[in-house]
Write a structure and sequence with these properties.
four-stranded antiparallel β-sheet, GIY-YIG endonuclease
Length: about 100
Amino acid sequence: MPFENHGNRPFTTTSVDKNAPAASGVYGLSNARQWIFVGETANIQAELRKHLQYPNEVLREHTASGYTFELSPAEYRVERQHQLVSELAPVGNRSHAQVARARS
């Protein structure tokens, strides 16, 4: 099941500060063509701001224009992230998924 009820918001500092909670959950970054990255964190707002200020190699190559999130307790975040990665196949999570499959 895709992200629950949070829609896509512009991936800007103003939007993150206004709309993203400083709470536990999972988040997704995308552009008009694809999902770029799905992550999990104890603080959605802080993690999104970090991606804006210090984009990693994937975000420099595939510029995110939007984000979405859903709240999730700490004990379910990683499981939910894996579910979303499997479902959405974000380009930035592919190497992580390949490593996990190779270990199995």
